[in-house]
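Quick one: structure for this chain?
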Amino acid sequence: MKILVLNCGSSSVKYKLFDMTTKTILGQGGVEKLGMRGSFLRHTRADGDRVTLEGEILTHQSAIEYILGVLISQKHGAIRSLEEIDAVGHRLVHGGEKFNSSVLIDDEVISKIEECIEIAPLHNPPNLAGINAIKELLPNIPQVGVFDTAFHQTMEPHAYMYAIPYSLYTKYGIRRYGFHGTSHRYVSKRACEFLGLEYEKAKLITCHIGNGASITAIKEGKSIDTSMGFTPVEGLMMGTRSGDIDAGVVTFLMDKEVLGTESASTLFNKHSGVLGISGVSSDMRDLDKAIAEGNDHAKLALKMYQYRIKKYIGSYLAVLGGADAIIFTGGVGENQSATREAVCSDMEWLGISIDSATNANTHGIEAIVSTPNSKIKIVVIPTDEELMIATDTMQIITKS
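Got it. Here's what it folds into:
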């Protein structure tokens, strides 16, 4: 069975074509700068063949036309015909309270996704554009939606509610939804397989740490709390997002800097976080270079970034009553050993002991980086959201 996975953003469309018989990637890539000058498609085949195609790619439909075209091209293709594609799985960012699992997409599902646009105006429209493009281009192919928010729908009201008038929740749906759910679900399950734990009995803390970052407390296979909230700006300090901030600061700055809602959103989403504190970059590699050159603001940014991860882990240990494992994933979580070391240091009193030598030599691979006597295992598990989406898609279309 061959599954095409699409991740449609506002200015990009990323894709992977899986052969689910072997769980291998036949082809992958993406369209970048969608709707802008200099748009292009990069495609890589399983045998290493690569190609970059430039063109005027203005819409999601034209982007997906390019993708389907290169997948069956004689020179660079991964399959002979589009008829080989059995289904398309979509990464969908926001399902609100309407979806607590992945679903087969039909007109009713599309209507419900449209109803969530108000709480996800940046993400749901491009997600819908990808669905509609496949409806037009491959009308007989089943489509499945896999929601970032669905995994967190198991949180209890005391964990997801904000302490604002309850009427605002009923009127606007304002609550913590959480994101990165597909990644948290994948790495938590994979970590249990890797460690030989029973998923339905384990207590886990998953740390998806990258330019966007979130931490989730998982008990008996269910998300019971997560750091991101109504939007992805809440929680940890991130590459360009502020993370947790006093709401009074928001209104104060809007008043003093004469900011409208759009400008305020841009400030806290795109000009804050690691970039805002360091003044250097949102990329940890650039930050490391600046620190090596003695940049004090870069040092402060990294210390704040690591400190907040440690704080969330501590709070989730309290919520869970301890843990079997702490799992690191995402670009930073998988590759920046210094951050894992800083986060897990001086935590021996909680049963957390990192193996510095093993940790320093672990980059982008599955590994246990805790010491043998650590009561709580520290594990690195590279995430694979696309494989999770493809797996859900296969299971749903097989049942339907």
